[in-house]
Amino acid sequence: MKKFLLAAVAILASGPFLRAQEVPEGYALVDSLVFTPITAVDTSLAGSSIFTVLPDNVSVNQGGLVRNAVESRVRQNRSRMVNGYRIRIFFDNSQTARSGSEAALYRFKVQNPGVSAYRSFANPYFKVTVGDYRTKSEALEALAAIKVQFPTAFIVKERFKYPAMDKVAAYKVDTLRILKPVR
Question: What's the pTM value of the predicted model, to 2 decimals?
């Protein structure tokens, strides 16, 4: 235990020496975007039997039980519900709640094309919820961006149909600071 505490104190004490080095003369730190591809998933066959789309030069020799089992599994998963997260951007029960929810939905869709948005009414509340996030970390990342536009937004846990893969943004963007010569 003493060795651990001594090591922790040594690391904390050396903090000022572990800082980044000064930028050399003739160079500057520049922000650079790095696009990392996300594993692409082809959803064009969602809900289809693989046996109906096989090329003519491919033949599958199997019993009818296997084919029936696959088709049964496809039918069962067609309406599968999953636990996930969404972000509630509007929640109100005032007399202007209906028009307020419509305005919030429209404003969000204009500012965030491609992100799913849902408007609902559960007596007496009008609600606008956005996104289909599989994990809470995905929802937290999106919440940070959405809070700029909708400061009262918060995360809610919901059950929904398994969301489709994002075909528009099949990459993740990160920012790196790199050292470049000044000209």
Answer: 0.53
